[in-house]
Amino acid sequence: MAFNFCQPFLINTLLGYLAKSPEISSPNNGYGLMGTTILVYAGIAASNALYWYFQERAMYMVRGVLASAVYRKTTEIKISTADNSAALTLMSVDVERVIRGFLRAQAVWANAIQVSLACWLHPWLLLYAAWRALQSSPES
């Protein structure tokens, strides 16, 4: 999430650097921006890979626990009460629905944090942009 928030700042800084003439801007700043770009985008890729790795790992653990619990309950009930084959047939479908629900629940809390952080950051960025616009405006 931090890398995604760094991306607009990087692009803003990069555009500011490219807007300057080559005589004014230092090549070291360009090399720093290249390194920062590599760091930000590699960080986005690595954090997404780790997120989905741990997400799938947790979902497989939940799937194993749910399947064993349903199987245990199915084998413990009396045969005259329920049909075992129908319960076991629907077991995998029900477990998959629960897993999909967990995936959506994970996205809800992560997006809630991201939206609240963006709502907090947005007014500060607007103030900064207005301040910069007032500084660069021509005197009347």
Automatic annotation (TrEMBL):
<keyword id="KW-0547">Nucleotide-binding</keyword>
<keyword id="KW-0812">Transmembrane</keyword>
<feature type="transmembrane region" description="Helical">
    <location>
        <begin position="107"/>
        <end position="131"/>
    </location>
</feature>
<keyword id="KW-0067">ATP-binding</keyword>
<keyword id="KW-0472">Membrane</keyword>
<protein>
    <recommendedName>
        <fullName>ABC transmembrane type-1 domain-containing protein</fullName>
    </recommendedName>
</protein>
<dbReference type="InterPro" id="IPR050173">
    <property type="entry name" value="ABC_transporter_C-like"/>
</dbReference>
<dbReference type="GO" id="GO:0016020">
    <property type="term" value="C:membrane"/>
</dbReference>
<dbReference type="GO" id="GO:0042626">
    <property type="term" value="F:ATPase-coupled transmembrane transporter activity"/>
</dbReference>
<dbReference type="GO" id="GO:0005524">
    <property type="term" value="F:ATP binding"/>
</dbReference>
<feature type="transmembrane region" description="Helical">
    <location>
        <begin position="31"/>
        <end position="54"/>
    </location>
</feature>
<keyword id="KW-1133">Transmembrane helix</keyword>
<dbReference type="InterPro" id="IPR036640">
    <property type="entry name" value="ABC1_TM_sf"/>
</dbReference>
